[in-house]
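Page 42, continued from yesterday. The earlier attempt failed because a stray header line got pasted into the input along with the sequence. Redoing it now with the clean sequence only.
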Amino acid sequence: MKNLNRIDLNLLVYLDVLLRECNVTQAANQLSLSQPAMSNGLRRLRALFNDPLLVRTSDGMTPTARAKELEPLVRDILAGVDRAIQPTSDFDPSTANHVIRIMASDYAESTLFPAVMQQLRELAPGITLDIMTPSDVSFLDVERGKIDLVINRFDQMPQSFHQITLWKDSFSCLLSPDNPILKNFDLDAYLSANHIWVSKTGMGVGVGVDPDDVQRLGWVDSALGQLKKKRRIRVFTRHYQAAMTLAEQNDLIVTLPTRATWLKRDNPRVVVKDVPFKVPAMELKMAWSPLLQHNLAHRWIRQLVTQTARELGPDGMESATPKATTAIKPAKSPKPAKTKTVRKRAAKP
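This time it went through. Structure tokens are written below.
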């Protein structure tokens, strides 16, 4: 084993950022260093590990096999250091000054975040939310801690992520009161209508929709497929607000999570109807990187979002101004486990 006192542990920070960015200039900017200083750091890392680590190719700087082996190890080491230097005092949200970056779907942003923002204004006025769309973010961004939280419906998620279900939601139909299918709103009437498709699951840059790929269209079309039925989709959109506005036209119908329809409950130009067939409930999940699991500020915001979601109730937004949630207690640093000394009694003769 090499003597640790001869190794500059700051080099591990350099390596983590270099492997994240795969670009010396961008890595230097991340750490507020000059490019020559970062280049010198890379030279020292290459000497330390006896490996080039990053090699210039037609795709730019590419990690070597050794670098890919080191990446999770270095990340675990730095996460351990971060836990060790976390402040021992409690996190005080009333004086906190943080920017929290959250990737949220249009659905989550519309149904959950008004109540979350109300809580933040009351309990943590110095915290700012930067809400990003699914196409702005990749799983790698989350894994590396660039994004604090992701809130969406997910078809799949890396096993390393921590996650929690915020709520389950049924589906409902939104359509104009002048839509002729309302006279007898059954499955046949539903299938005779022109439909608006709205969805954006997962993360990353989206691609065009194939109307014939039923399995990838989501829960509603998969449920219809089980019945050997198919609806006639005329509009594909990734925005819930746009879909609900389009539903005001008297020849269109949108099927979407029930909580979203509550946003239009006072709009006389639309009505809400139960879906005339069974659609499995969807789950709204919140996930985050293991790198942020023990961060006190992060733990507090997770608790606030979770509690706010739970207190909105199963029927969606019950009032224009949701009830204030119970005060969130300040997050505390984890205390070391207490140990007990067990004394054995001497055996009796």
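Notes: Residues 314-327, 333-349 have pLDDT under 50 and may be disordered.
Reminder to self: strip header lines before submitting.
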